[in-house]
Amino acid sequence: MIPAPTNREALGLVAGFGLWSLTFLLLYGGHGLACGLGARPEDGAALTRILLLAVWIAMLAAHGALIVWFVRRLRAASDTLRFVRRASVVLAVAALVATFWTGLPVAALEICDGQSVGLPDPG
Amino acid sequence: MSEERHNKALEFHSELDPLYSPPKTRFGFLAATNHSVIGIRFMATAIGFFLIGGILAMLIRAQLAGPNTQFLDPGQYSQVFTMHGTVMMFLFAIPLIEGFALYMLPKLLGARDLAFPRLSAFGYWCYLSGGLILLAALLFGVAPDSGWFMYTPLSSKPYSPGINADVWLLGVTVVEVSAACAAIEFMATVLKVRTGGMALSKMPILAWYLWATSAMMLVGFPPLILGSIMLEVERAFGLPFFDPDKGGDPLLWQHLFWLFGHPEVYIIFLPGAGIVSTILPVFARRPLVGYNWIVAALIAQAFISFGLWVHHMFTTGIPDLSLAFFSAASLLVVVPTAIQIFSWLTTLLKGRPDLSLPMLWIYGFFFIFVTGGLTGVMVAIVPFDWQVHDTHFVVAHLHYVLVGGFVFPVLAGIYHWMPLFTGRRSDKGLGVLAFWLVFIGFNLTFFIMHLTGLLGMPRRVYTYAEGLGWELPNLVSSIGGFMSAVGFGLVLIDVLVQWRFAPFVHRNPWKAGTLEWGMATPIPSYNFASLAHVESRDPLHDDPDLPACLAAGEGYLAGHRGDYRDTLGVDGVTGEPEQIILLPPPSYLPLLTALPLVGVALCFLFSFYVGSVILAVVVLFMALRWLWETGLREDPAPIEAGFGRTLLPHPAVEQAPGWWGMIFTLVFDATFFASLLFGYIFLWTIAPNWPPPRFLEPAPILALLTLASLGLGGFAASRAVAANRQERESSRSSWLLLAAASGVAATFGLLAVPIWLAPPPTEHAYSAAVLMLSAYGAFHTGLSTVGSLFVLARCRRGFVSPLRSLDVRNASLFWSYSAVSGAIIVAVIHLMPLVGAA
Ligand code: HEM
Ligand SMILES: [Cu+2]
User: Fold this and answer.
1) What CATH number has the domain spanning B691-837?
2) Alpha carbon distance B268, B513 (integer Å)
């Protein structure tokens, strides 16, 4: 009588941006840690950059895999599940773009350089 | 036919109303748990605090109206602006959102109450008491005075020796307990407590907004609570978390505060936007364009807004690359906002909107919010900001966003939903005048204030000299401020007048489609005599007769099944009816649990620590007493639920709301833990004066024993679940006992470190952090121990069976969490010194 609970399906909605958050933490935290441990632009930064790039690319791949998996599941969806599964795919794609965008500075900027101004905002 | 229906409806009403109302005894109101009652209390209290915050704002404007004013001295001025910010953010905005969600969610979802009604009542008492503590401090002249973000070292003991800062830390933390409870409750409610057929795709958009908001509260508040606790123990016991001489770092406070503080802006904005997304389609007379896109945008926004906190930390020496991540996220977060604005505009253009009072406020919202967004872009441009940082430009910008993005939609919402609790139409009249006064006054105040900022006037200064060109703009701002104050006063009068004199309306005056209008007005205490079966997002448009059918009992769970309250529980995604949720009767326990909790904070405030400890034990006892009253002592039979379905009551169901309550509690808890670990690692790698003078004595055997007891406890608790499933009662008891015994051992193992092995916690931030981590672990293993024994007692009394397994499952889940977090703590505490020494 009681249908199989589908509560877990709702997790799909947060999977994509969950990965984005993880990437953000790894990149921001990893870089901060490296600088805290003494990496400077002049020395040792190459390794840090390679590690950060590796994280970024690995996470992009994870995003890609998530999308493929979600798209497959979309085909098997019943009527009531279609909305959630479709939204999960859209969010997973958006999260991929977000991760690509957020990680770009790793490729472009100096590691541990500059100690300057934040982008402030009031409050 | 209709006559017959009417009589039936009256019959249901006379049976249900007493059952769902607070007890009619003298102090019965203290036992109320009904969501409409508690929601109204929350909102009324929050509006009371809005008036207080507004009076403080008027004091500020009076002081700044001219140069060299002696109306307030610098000390008083600091208290006034700090309290203005604190009251508005913590005692007005967040609680108003909680109250609004409490009141609206069950109605939107077609239910009779929330998942945990007593928790709402408990939250209310915490909020009220915390607010009163802050208010009392203001009256006695010892209010907080370090600004609403309480930066260290300004808020540390050497610079703030009085109790002012302690009032903030303790008062706000007590208030945040209510936010945490609300977040957990709303998460579980939207997931489980809806009416039949309401799949996620058919949920009213406002429920999505409030769900996203709750999720953000669930992970946004832990860093703030952690930061407040750390600062308070630094102030009380000298644990130097923020003291750079001893390996602490004031930057840590900023991180923890803004980790909460930036999402806070979105926590406030999202419900406002949700109100707009709900009201606009009603008055444009067409469905919201792009529902699916808005849902996706909300979820994305909820995440991204956590990636922005560092942009508040100005000139704090953070490498360019780190900042670039935050700039990237700052730009990203614009996209979801843009999606919503496009959707609103398209809905407006496609429809034929009228100029009713709620719409007036919504147009006001558009204007102000968009302007605020533009100045936000200006603030975000770095060189520009160099000039305006910490000037009144920033104050102007932040009010455009907060007042435009929140207060205006809220006023639209008040006029829109007022018929629900007044039972009368809400008319134009005085309200239009009030709107224009507020709108013009607001813009006069804050538009001009941008200019004052550009002329260089810093924020938070109590007065200024003549001849800087600041006199005229300040005077204009002050006049505008009083003008909007008069406007707000008129709104209040207008609402009271309409409450008394406007013409009656029976139901659904705006011809809206969502279920909150599917009941008579003023709303009955039980919301619906029977619950709808929903096929679309606008059930009242599908069938305008639906309210009458529901009132006559032609839906799920008509009337009552015993002398208890109940509502439907559904499968989270599909909305298939799944269980009957039994709601608790009115109870004094929420109040009796909140009072000792407030006592803990008050004793702490006056350095009476023994009192705090004793009262904490009382809190624990009351909480157990409360939990004891849940569940059933016999396996229930399936119950007729209407539309040919029979369902089990929730204690006999796998996916009971309580299970989800535990999961969301642990999400909150895990965020707290993650923030704590972040703090430790941050201090270790970034703070000055590391490494500490000495590390912990290595104790590999103790570490291994602690790990073993953690593992054993988690394992035993999970075996108890299995034994329960297999109906082996005596082995269930043995496993629970073993789990409790391991809990005791693990607690000792964790506490041994700060007591015997680590240097004194006041010596260095390192040993202070070790104490903090150990205390966190020991708190959890201690609770796991109590929990195991509690469940054992519940088993003895027949509350647990293979069918009714929630108690053991929850205990086991909590134990697993304690074991995993405990193992991480052991690893961090015992291994990092080896790394540090190497
Ligand atoms: C419409 C009436 C209001 C007026 C006239 C007003 C006025 C002011 C002024 C002049 C300041 C700056 C004080 C200074 O830096 O010297 C200020 C600060 C502030 N206001 Fe308002 N305000 C109003 C409403 C609100 C609302 C509704 C909120 C929040 C929901 C709010 C939140 C804040 C915050 C967070 C601060 C910063 C406090 C600090 O610097 O610690 N205000 N307000
Ligand atoms: Cu921000």
Assistant:
1) 1.20.120.80
2) 26
